[in-house]
Amino acid sequence: MEDFLAAAVEAARKAGEIIRAGFYGKKGVEHKGLVDLVTETDKGCEELIFTFLKQKFPDHKFIGEETTAALGPEELTNEPTWIVDPLDGTTNFVHSFPFVCVSIGLTIQKVPTVGVVYNPIMDELFTAIRGKGSFLNGNPIKASSQTELVKSLLATEVGTKRDKPTMDDVTNRIKSLLFKVRSVRMGGSCALNLCGIACGRLDLTYEIGFGGAWDVAAGAVIVTEAGGLVFDPSGKDFDLTSQRVAASNAFLKDAFVDTLQQSE
Amino acid sequence: MAQPGSVEDFLAKALDAAKSAGEIIRSGFYESKVVHHKGEVDLVTETDKKCEQLIFDFLKQQYPNHKFIGEETSAACGTEELTDDPTWIVDPVDGTTNFVHGFPFVCVSIGLTIGKIPTVGVVYNPIMNELFTAVRGKGAFLNGEPIKVSSQNELVKSLLVTEVGTKRDTATVDAATNRINSLLFQVQAIRSCGSTALDLCGIACGRLDLFYQHGFGPWDVAAGFVIVTEAGGLVYDPTGKDADITIPQIAASNPHLKDVFVKALQWK
Predict the structure, then answer these.
(1) The pLDDT of residue B5
(2) Structure pTM?
(3) Exposed (0-12), middle (13-18) or buried (19+): which is A23, by Cβ within 10 Å?
(4) Dihedral angle at the C-alpha atoms of A186, A190, A193, A195, nearest 10 degrees?
(5) CA B134 to CA B109: how far, in whole Å?
(6) Cα B74 to Cα B159: distance, rounded to the nearest angstrom
(7) Interface contact flag, B180 A171, Cβ < 8 Å
(8) Residue A4 is inside which H or E element, if any?
(9) ipTM greater than 0.90
(10) Chain A residue numbers touching B178 (CB-CB < 8 A)
């Protein structure tokens, strides 16, 4: 496991260099959707990470955001599978807004087992191995101990779908939650929101309808190893491929799920 | 060394004050905080009060004839009216909720108005080590490097930032989220970071394209106002009229986007 983590950290740092180098310059932006962006940096980083990890672990499987966009989704099997978002927060990258990261997760038997999330602009490296704790730049981190929703800081994202029913759902949910929590943040990176839960700077996060497993595979390990919980917004078990996620510390889960249910 | 009583001198002293307050914020950031409530979700800590005291004491010593408006003093004693006198308008910790949670978007905001015009602005985030500065007529800077607003001219490619504020009555929350819903159809994406002053600085350095907020105090915007305008941006009332920093509604963008943004903000 430590080998897997070391390789993932090395790949993340290399990709982080590319992101950092391109961060303040002009970017060539393509559109996967009206507001769903991709750049050469996304593609370059995914290629670098895949090439590096495939060389070390030729029998492993790979699922990446940009490869999936090009070739269609791969099914998640029990094989060790690297699930990679080469640049989470592409919109932020395009605007030079500093919430961007590489997210590299490894599942074994479909269970997220190794997680690395690296923000090269703020120089924050989040790592975790199942059973071995969670770390930020090598220092152990823990989810918050907040027990009251009204004192909790919530992060969510508006996503990239712009049809009216989705937008109405998104804002109605936020409206409903605003009456119950302390405040709401929208930083633009799902993986970094999960890491925020893990290190206690956020208490609650949810996102419904994001790109894919690559946004959450690494963050899921990092949260659980920090003593937090990752679950479906309905309260049921988390499903990595469902494009639905919620996370909090252990104390807040029930109240959070109740509030999310009421907002449906 | 700047001539005493010159705007450069005002900037230099504001910088000293901001850095000292920044140290206090940095040292308290990862510790446990004692939180008091000004409202259900409107927080204040000992750090806010200590920083405001430090900044006021320091600047009053330098400029005994200047006036002072600070968030925590106003909370205690009521807000002073803004006059033509040189007036320091200070938010000792903008993003107190973030400070309490250890979320790294916090800053000291120190603005100076002369003739009611924001003339000197310093915003310092000691956690991310970003120091934004501007003097009227002399440009805007981030850690000493000149900054400019973005050149984006299309709403649909623009990154919008706003804050939900601290009022939780139904009318305010409804209006805030309905406005967000309406804008979501027109802009690229929305961010909410928890610090009005840092949002304005984000406009100034081009990492954000559009900003608006309803419900804040003049201390949240006095410094950012100069920083945005000196970076080539515009600060205005969301209706398109001139901004008045004592009225709690404001918008900011680069010049290309102002008209379309004002139109988009007229949601009913």
Answers:
(1) 82
(2) 0.96
(3) middle
(4) -160
(5) 12
(6) 33
(7) yes
(8) helix A2-23
(9) yes
(10) 171
